[in-house]
Hints:
Layout: H1 3-14, E1 18-22, E2 25-29, E3 41-44, H2 53-63, E4 69-74, H3 82-86, E5 90-99, E6 112-116, H4 121-134, H5 141-160, E7 164-171, E8 174-184, E9 187-195, H6 204-217, E10 223-229, H7 235-240, E11 244-255
Parallel strand pairs: 3-4, 9-10
Antiparallel strand pairs: 1-2, 2-3, 4-11, 5-10, 5-11, 6-7, 7-8, 8-9
Helix pairs in contact: 4-5
Amino acid sequence: MPEDWHTDLTILELTGSTIEQKDGYIVVRTRENPNYHWGNCILVLDESSIQDAPRWANQFHTEFPHQDWVAIALPTMPADSSTWKSLGIDLDQLELWHATEVFENYRLPHEYTVRLIEGADWDQLSRKEIADFNVGAQYDPKMIDEFVKIQNNSRELLCKQGKAAWFGAFFGGEIVGNLGIVVCETTGRYQSVEVAKNHRRVGIASFLLGAAGRWSKERGCTKWAIVAEASGDARRVYQKAGFYLVGGSVAAYAYRSAAK
């Protein structure tokens, strides 16, 4: 099992998901948030079978017969992705990054404030995420609204329980950057690093990484992990913050796919 899946599954269980191991794969169900695509998915354990896209697409729809998406985690990239693509399923390489030291912050421009997200901040964060999801209108707006609000309710509960923390960067009272961190035994697992486009390259992501890292270190973490898309531009930030690449996995995903 890829190393990043261990913390993924831990966090899913902490937020109420059920994890069921079957023959060659794992089923994740999040009944309280049925629109959470990566909370209602399967993880393929049998690396020798990842070329068999029809098998796994059918298996997903056997487990989730009423869903109109495909969300399958693969342990590695198939040598030939054409059968997946023929079903309308995209394959995205994910990278797992580790750090063994907390990043030391440098100063942010004085107009920014970084602090824990709490109270009414959660509503603002939900509104921001709903607006971001609706750009391009790929998903049904009602589904997005329900998914985001339920997810942030789960995040807020984890924070209140002391198992996680969510930090925001504020500009004139507006959230322009945020990330979470969850304590998974001695690993601090970062979640959802986001910075608004017109506030990038001023050090917000790096500052948030450091603030969350120190919070988790005070709670016993000695290692930090973050997962990002290989095609993203976050590598520079993570490398500067002392992270190093250790592995990864693959997300096989389609929305309203013909694979059903």
